Amino acid sequence: MRGATLSLAGRTILDDAAARLAPGEVLGLIGPNGAGKSTLLRVMAGMQRPDAGGAVLDGRDLAAAAAGWRARHLSFLPQEDVPPPPMRVEDLVALGRLPHRAHPERARDREAITRALRETDLLDLRARPGSMLSGGERARMRLARALAVEAAYLLADEPVAALDPAHALNVMASFRRLAAGGTGVAVVLHDLALAARFCDRVMLMQAGRVVADGLPQDVLTDMAMQAVYGVAVRRIGQAVIPWSLTE
Ligand SMILES: Nc1ncnc2c1ncn2[C@@H]1O[C@H](COP(=O)(O)OP(=O)(O)OP(=O)(O)O)[C@@H](O)[C@H]1O
After folding, report:
1. Is 216 within 8 Å of 29 (Cβ atoms)?
2. What is d(CA 147, CA 65) in angstroms, rounded to the nearest whole number?
3. Is the ipTM of this complex over 0.90?
């Protein structure tokens, strides 16, 4: 991706922010509220056209690519949650297969839906109406729909924000399994411990700029955490825990 610059309503939202996502890696996007993580993820997905720069996949400008092509190659899980219609969970997850409808392969669709339900621990809830799910169950259903696409790249915006610790660990382990199978995964996270433990690479954003990009241990330094978040951290193994405010 070429460094993206974007202004909205007279404010600079992205300032020459560049990202690359390789097959088989889990990339974590971290940074304070309003840093530009969601906007950068949308640019990476080709869903937001920046004023300059932009994302390229297989030589194509993603923002100019046909929506169907984009949806088959790249699965995007937005941060925003909208109340699901009163459809069964498995039918809502099956919507993730829509980008493939020009080439219907029923058995393959069924397998992909079942795999996604299993990865998100929703097999037991598959027949329940989506409108009756708890907040965390709903978040898992939305992730399952994104997983069911089985695209080469998955871009997920805060997929674990509503999840209990066990399900959050499970989702991060799913991302590692996907990456082991060759998928490129970019995930926006606020949990520094998960970023440190599960990401191959971490990009730290502040005020629309990428201020660090590298191995978790090289990015999540005491100095960076203080400078960007204003927090002092403690560490358990690789995990980084925000401990106190420094200002
Ligand atoms: N359509 C828009 N018009 C004007 N400003 C916008 C628009 N969309 C986002 N912004 C601003 O851009 C900045 C970056 O927003 P973005 O959602 O990318 O941040 P973020 O890092 O994902 O934040 P959070 O952690 O709170 O989700 C914010 O200051 C936000 O208010």
Report:
1. no
2. 21
3. yes
Is there an atom of ligand 1 within 6 Å of 31 CB? yes
CA of 38 to the centre of ligand 1 (A): 7
First to last CA, the chain: 36
Dihedrals phi, psi of 152, to nearest 5 degrees: -70, -25
| Residue 36 alpha carbon, nearest atom of ligand 1 | 18
**Cβ within 8 Å of residue 106, ≥6 positions away:** none
Residue nearest to atom 5 of ligand 1 (CA): 8
59's torsion region: left (phi>0), alpha (psi -120 to 50) or beta?
A: left
Q: What's the CA gap between 57 and 50, in Å, rounded?
A: 16
Cβ neighbours of residue 166 closer than 8 Å, sequence gap 6 or more: none
CA nearest ligand 1 atom 25, residue: 33
Which domains are seen in the chain, by residue range?
Answer: 2-212 (3.40.50.300)
pLDDT band at 117 (very low <50, low <70, confident <90, very high): very high
DSSP 140-161: HHHHHHHHHT--SEEEEESTTT
Give, using CA atoms, the residue closest to atom 18 of ligand 1.
Answer: 36
pTM above 0.90, yes or no: yes
If you average pLDDT over residues 53-67, what whole number do you get? 83
